[in-house]
Design goal:
By secondary structure, this protein is of the alpha+beta class. The protein is built from 7 helices and 14 strands.
């Protein structure tokens, strides 16, 4: 089921006893509207760097979890808006759980929250942000009942400081995956004349990162710049993985890809001969 309300564009899927589940659209739309209302109410707070937010006890569930997610990943550089899409997916998934489904997938513009009661597994294609097409890479995820996936990259829905075409993260929640993907992608930044940056406020006066210089144009990159960018992102991804904040990350730039995945269960990166 596709639902579009305000900034949220969601694809919701469920299964019960092996059969696709028919959702009550009006019930889901009402829940999404309530989630977005809570975010709007706290938007001035959520657009601050997370370290400035000291007390979240008074906040509704979704704004509070946005703050918690970015504080887990990096409270100094991120605002809670870095976790907004994943947090919305998580909240709707938790709401749907009450219907007793075996499989739930809530995809909010590529930031996905999954419930897989029997841990049967899920295959997710890694898309190309620029073309909208799937690439030859697929994530095969097994062994988790609750988890989230998120992707950040240059040319996506959000602004980035980095160069990566895509950073895809798998974590325990969509909110943490969203924050981590943003953080890692930002860290793929390399200072070079081949990249043009401008203040985020010049693109979007209402952005949560008005003083940050974001990537707006990437010209032909040398192999050295590509390798340095990927290495920066990968080193950071490993640091976050070692702390057990995320399960794994995949970073793609041009025709190059690097990952924290070690080739074994429960997350496997598959390559399909470019098709």
């Amino acid at each position: 089921m596709f639902i579009e309300i305000g900034p949220a564009s969601l694809v919701v899927y469920g299964e019960k006893e092996g059969m696709p589940y028919e959702f009550d659209r009006s019930r889901l739309e009402e829940k999404i509207q309530n989630i977005l209302r809570d975010i709007r109410e706290y938007l001035p707070v959520l657009k601050q760097k997370a370290y400035k937010i000291k007390n979240t006890k008074h906040m509704p569930d979704v704004p509070r979890k946005m703050v918690e997610a970015v504080k887990t990943i990096d409270e100094m550089s991120l605002t809670p808006m870095a976790a907004v899409a994943g947090s919305v997916s998580d909240a709707l998934k938790e709401h749907i759980k009450g219907e007793g489904l075996d499989i739930i997938s809530v995809n909010n513009g590529g930031d996905i929250s999954v419930f897989d009661r029997y841990e049967k597994g899920l295959k997710v294609g890694i898309g190309d942000i620029h073309t909208g097409r799937t690439t030859s890479y697929t994530l095969n995820i097994k062994g988790f009942s609750d988890y989230g996936l998120a992707t950040s990259g240059f040319g996506g829905r959000s602004l980035t400081l980095g160069l990566a075409d895509s950073v895809t993260v798998v974590a325990a929640t969509g909110a943490v995956a969203d924050a981590a993907a943003t953080f890692i992608c930002n860290n793929t930044s390399i200072i070079t004349n081949q990249v043009r940056r401008i203040k985020a406020s010049e693109i979007d006066p209402l952005t949560d990162i008005p003083e940050e210089y974001v990537t707006v144009e990437i010209n032909q990159l040398s192999e050295g710049v590509i390798n340095d960018s990927l290495e920066k992102g990968l080193q950071l991804a490993f640091k976050i993985k070692i702390k057990k904040y995320i399960y794994d990350a995949i970073i793609k730039l041009k025709d190059h890809i690097v990952t924290t995945i070690n080739g074994g269960y429960p997350i496997i990166l598959e390559v399909h001969n470019g098709n």
